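SECTION: protein entry
WANTED: fold as tokens:
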Amino acid sequence: MTALLLALLAAFSVAVVSCSDSDETLVNTTEDSSQFVNLTDVVPDAILEIRYYGTYNFVGERIDGYLQPTALLTRQAAEALKAVSDEVKAQGYRLKIYDAYRPQMGVDHFVRWSKNVEDVRMKEFFYPDLDKSVLFAQDYIMEKSGHTRGSTVDLTLFDMHTEKELDMGGTFDWFGPESHPDFCGNPETGEYTGDNSASPAGRTITAEQFQHRMILRRAMLNHGFKPLDSEWWHFTLKDEPFPDTYFTFPVKEL
């Protein structure tokens, strides 16, 4: 019985994790990557700019678990993203990927960084309007991430005519209301309102920038992804295959 139990635990461990609201939640963790694919094997037109492999990110250094600048997703999420890619290509765009699967060790790196309030080397680029001490309390940093379940992707659009990223009016991983899909408009109707009252510094985006965000949003929703209400670039497959499993293997070519 003991040998069987140890074998089961080695293959698929169960961990008790303390969440940001201090409740204890039972979650599954595993190192099994067999249900994942290299994203560019399924979506060969995708452009990769894996921010957490480099140093231009809100931490300012390579994040733990990013061994290669590649993107991994569950096969189901990758196939849905292929349909998105086909739709936006017909409009003259390509998908540009900032992050996809994120190992739990990467999330743990974020948590450690958030608790070191003296490390503000990237503040001016990603959170100039916030004191770093509030990032964890306001859920900008959390102990668990949907990315770790393997069916969430952070992305933007690349304009094939201008050969530049489409102007979304804000950078990936900007911590603030300016990143919310409803900033200056209604994402449900696609209407630009210009209401920038949520911005603590009076920042704004133009009607064109808002509509650019809507092009990405509509394509993602058309093919089975759901948005996040705090980040215009973040989408999760609605029918994700592992809704209760957090993966631990590193990011590298499969």
In short: Residues 44 and 82 are 9 Å apart (CA to CA). The helical segments are 2-11, 39-42, 75-89, 104-115, 123-126, 207-222. The chain has a mean pLDDT of 91. The two ends are 34 Å apart (CA to CA).
